[in-house]
Design brief:
By secondary structure, the protein is α+β, with helices and mostly antiparallel strands. It has a single domain (3-187), classed as Beta Barrel (Porin). The protein is 21% helix and 37% strand. It has a 13-stranded antiparallel β-sheet, sandwiched between helices. The longest helix has 22 residues, at 166-187.
């Protein structure tokens, strides 16, 4: 079994076993939309300003989550121009939290801090999959695919229930949004 089909099978098993939360984007515009759970409740919102001209750098993207039980609004930010991420009030450069290996697998490794979990992120079968050190999937983000004769499916984000803290979940969401946005930028 190839690593691609193995990763997809492991992810499918995790989803089937109920080990993943599932959020559907309201639109194909990943950086300006809401993410809704299976009950259609808005769980996250992505907000990106409009660039002053088409050739300027993309304005920062903010990921917001409102928690009704605590009446708290938490935010995480990708600053595209400064190449920084901000999670839990702490800011780090993309080059500080992301690394590539020298091989040709296309994998990227993301870690928020030395004492934090490192995530292996790969693009397989029209989706980004983030795995932990045991190669267990902790998150995935499907790409918006265009179809000519049928409706386009909306992107779907899946997060492992094992991601316990909100800053950890936000970091994983940001790294997937960053990866997909950069992939789409390279296509244009």
């Amino acid at each position: 079994m190839s690593s691609s089909s193995s990763a997809a099978a492991t992810l499918a098993a995790a989803v089937a076993a109920g080990r993943m939360h599932e959020y559907t984007f309201e639109s194909e515009r990943l950086l300006r939309t809401a993410l809704r759970d299976v009950y259609l409740t808005r769980q996250y919102t992505t907000i990106t300003g409009t660039a002053k001209n088409p050739h300027s750098t993309r304005p920062p993207t903010t990921l917001e989550r409102y928690e009704p039980s605590t009446n708290e609004l938490t935010k995480a930010v990708i600053d595209w121009k400064a190449r920084t991420l901000q999670v839990g009030g702490e800011m780090k450069g993309v080059d500080e939290v992301k690394r590539k290996t020298g091989n040709f697998t296309g994998s990227r490794y993301w870690r928020w801090g030395d004492d934090k979990e490192e995530y292996k992120v790969r693009y397989l079968d029209n989706m980004w999959i983030a795995s932990d050190a045991n190669n267990e999937p902790v998150a995935s983000l499907t790409s918006a695919t265009k179809h000519v004769f049928k409706p386009n499916p909306l992107p779907v984000l899946r997060l492992s229930r094992a991601l316990q803290s909100e800053p950890q979940r936000q970091f994983v969401i940001l790294l997937l949004l960053y990866s997909e946005t950069k992939r789409l930028d390279r296509q244009d």
